[in-house]
Amino acid sequence: MAKKPSPIKKDVSNDKIQALEAFKEDSSEQFLTTNNGVRINDNHNSLKVSDRGPTLLEDFVLREKITHFDHERIPERVVHARGAGAHGIFQVYESLEKFTCAGFLTDPKRETPVFVRFSTVAGSRGSTDLARDVRGFAVKFYTEEGIFDLVGNNIPVFFIQDAMKFPDLVHAVKPEPHNEIPQAASAHNTFWDFISCTPESMHMIMWVMSDRAIPRSYRMMEGFGVHTFRLINAEGQSHFVKFHWKPLLGVHSVAWDEAQIISGRDPDFHRRDLWMAIENGDYPEWELGLQIIPEADEHKFDFDLLDPTKIVPEEMVPVQRVGRLTLNRNPDNFFAETEQVAFHVGHIVRGIDFSNDPLLQGRLFSYLDTQLTRLGGPNFMEIPINRPLAPVHNNQRDGFMRQTINKGRTAHDPNRIGGGCPFQAGWKQGGFVSYTQAVEGSKIRARSASFSDHFSQAALFFNSLSLPEKNHLIDALRFELGKVEIEEVRVRMLSLLAQVDGGLAASVAEALTLDVPDQPPRPLNLNVGADAEEGASEPQPIAFDPTKSPALSQANQPCSPETRRIAVLVADGFDASDVAGLRKVAEGEGAMVDLVSTRVGQIKDSSGRLHLASFSVYTVDSVLFDAVYVADGGKSVENLTLHINAVRFLQNAYVHCKSIGISGSAVQLLKLACPRVNDGGEAGVLVGLKLTAEFVGSLAQHRYWERENTLKPGFEEKPDV
Ligand code: HDD
Fold it and tell me: Are 144 and 123 found together in one domain?
């Protein structure tokens, strides 16, 4: 199963591209027209009675233009409003027919077109990409047997166990209702009030406070289907499955301070990064991973497979990499494609089926329902980006903006007039048949006791992190709870954190000048209905599992200099041969080099030759790059030292633990920017001459987090209290 076919060819023209082509409009060398196709003679002046007189109601050109403009906006998504999308293809390595009959997972020759949309959850459409937040990772497969949407996130668990709580969760994290503050941030009272009353969210909170919530790039995120699904083979047999996306570039994150600066410098950082990578031909790639669990093993875990706040640790059930997703084409039009794309967990194809996860079951209602408001009616599936490639035949008719012209006089089933068409399809004819599962029980509002351990996997996650990652998580909690004004909420959170890890709770408490309560008050158990019997859903004893899962730490991720951006600081008088040497090595390794100077435009090297600086220290900051190299050249360096922005550029790169190359005389700038660094350098700071190869090599580590110890006192790993 692990065998890979030869790399997928990059510029596939596929059926979906052809299908979209029919709807595209290109106005080059065309006359301007009204929507009726009438050529417009003056697009600048409305029709008036004399040139200073009133405008005439008759002006159909003006009225059409303004009317259309007045209605250009549609409601943004209630969550995941901010996003970016791209087209691509998916191809399975080897047939998975043992487990599923889905064509796109059984035919290794088939290239299935996909559209992927990445998003943040809480912010509005215009909010920053770098908010601390979960990232949506939604994949639409246009398979030959219909559309399959894998509507996942970059975090494998969720805040809540039952869809019933979703509106409350979202109301809590969104800006507070009285003053609509803050935008795209969870660091506020209502969010933490909700969380402090919701112990089931503690595992998710660990992930959201970790570096996973501030990715370096969409291209460097894992994706997860979250819920347990089913795979169904041609014999109708079922296996449970967890879906994963594994980025070939590895999982990497920025620093929180950096994220906040990026939010000001370039709120479109992730969107731009995805766009540029595809334009440059650096197509982002992920492998589809499956954790397959035989039905017979359903109850062999110490958690419930139906509980969306739990992972199946990769060390328990390995992730088999079964295929590859390549994003190779940017949309032509953001609104038509990325904004109008409608994902739905209920878009499923034969060979895949649902589990009884109560969160998933609620989602099955929500996604279809939301599109009716967002896209204005039941015909949203006819919008080009949402149309399946598989032919559509049914008796659904009419509604707002109907595109299809259905022929014939029958729109009912059964019928004799239309010859009984369209027919139902049996299983052997490719019909979708829901998996036959025996179900028995009383009608009750309840949650299974097997869902009640809220802390073991939160602890597993925390324990599995490297020391810098733990520090980042603690700092994130200090930041978030530091913004909470209500002491009771902070104290309740400390109680919950203490049940994850005593050292963690103590470190957070220190920054809040609070004590961790000795006897954590029993968390308000809002899982229980008002009439439930006292103690009826008392949590199970907490089975603390100290085992580490190395797969959870980003410290164990692949990394390479590929597609990384190096800022080369130069000013008039720089040493061009130094920069040329760096460029050669860097580009050879797949990295990108940009000259950043004290102004944009032409600058002179030491021999008077002109070079183009695309950026200046006044238009960008080092937060927008992966590494900084300060080129040699006495005059150039002296010039840079006069600009506080150049000094801060280098200082930020140091503070954010990036690779730094200091060539020859550039040490003067280093001394100014980072007085604490000695000439011998330190982790990730290379000082000297002819160190280009070493410097480019150092990019492969992504970050030198150990430098953080020089910036402030850090977290010490202590035994649990
Ligand atoms: Fe959701 C959008 C992912 C729980 C209701 N969700 C949405 C998107 C993603 C997710 C990636 C954006 C899709 C796009 O790019 O257009 N949602 C998740 C995951 C969840 C989850 C991984 C838990 C495992 N969601 C969830 C629940 C509900 C919703 C429990 C409601 C009961 N989600 C929605 C929604 C959205 C949505 C309101 C907003 C816009 C849309 O659907 O199309 O229906």
Answer: yes
pLDDT digits (tens, 9 = 90+) for 531-571: 544 444 444 443 435 578 999 999 999 989 999 999 999 99
Q: How high is the pLDDT of residue 10? A: 46
- Determine contact, residues 150/225, Cβ cutoff 8 Å: yes
Give how far the C-alpha of residue 286 lies from the chain's centroid of Cα atoms, to the nearest Å: 13
Q: Count CB-CB contacts under 10 A for residue 720.
A: 13
Determine which residue's CA is closest to atom 22 belonging to ligand 1.
152
Whether residue 625 contacts residue 217, with contact meaning beta carbons closer than 8 Å, is answered with no
Q: Is residue 498 part of a domain?
A: no
CATH number of the structural domain spanning residue 640: 3.40.50.880
- At which residue do the structure tokens 């919530």 appear? 213
> What is the pairing mode between strands 83-92 and 592-597?
unpaired
Last residue of a domain, one of 359, 386, 413: 386
Best residue among 77, 154, 198, 338 to mutate for probing ligand 1's pocket (most ligand atoms within 8 Å of CB) is 77
pLDDT above 90: residue 3? no
Dist CA 639 CA 653 (whole Å) = 19
Q: With beta carbons less than 8 A apart as the criterion, state whether 91 and 108 touch.
A: yes
Top mutation candidate among 74, 140, 151, 310 for ligand 1, by most atoms within 8 Å of CB: 151
* Residue 617 domain boundaries: 560-701
Same domain, 272 and 362: yes
Read out DSSP for 392-408?
Answer: ---S----TT------S
CB 516 within 8 A of CB 498: yes
What's the pLDDT tens digit per position in 79-102? 999 999 999 999 999 999 999 999
For ligand 1, atom 35: residue with the closest CA: 367
The CATH code of the domain that includes 47 is 4.10.91.20
Using a 10 angstrom Cβ sphere, with 0-12 exposed, 13-18 middle and 19 or more buried, the burial of residue 96 is: buried
| Domain match, 37 and 108 both | no
Model confidence band, residue 530 (pLDDT cutoffs 50, 70, 90): low
Residue 448 pLDDT class (50, 70, 90 cuts): very high
pLDDT band at 526 (very low <50, low <70, confident <90, very high): very low
Q: Is residue 119 part of a domain?
A: yes
Q: Where are the alpha helices (DSSP H) in 323-385?
A: 358-374
Same structural domain, 341 and 372: yes
In tens, the pLDDT along 566-600 reads 999 999 999 999 999 999 999 999 999 999 999 99
| CATH code of the domain containing 376 | 2.40.180.10
Atom of ligand 1 lying closest to residue 80 CA: 12
Is 299 known to be catalytic?
no
C-alpha span between 230 and 352 (Å, rounded): 6
Residues 305 and 235 in one domain: yes
Q: For residue 187, tell me if it sits in a domain.
A: no
Give the pLDDT mean for 634-656: 97
Of 386, 414, 441, which residue is a domain's last? Answer: 386
Indicate the helix (H) or strand (E) that contains 263.
helix 256-265
User: pLDDT tens, 14-57?
Assistant: 678 888 888 999 999 999 999 999 999 999 999 999 999 999 99
Question: Are both 159 and 36 inside the same structural domain?
Answer: no
Contact between residue 358 and residue 163 where contact means Cβ atoms under 8 Å apart = yes
Whether 54 and 111 share a structural domain:
no
Q: How many domains does the chain have?
A: 3
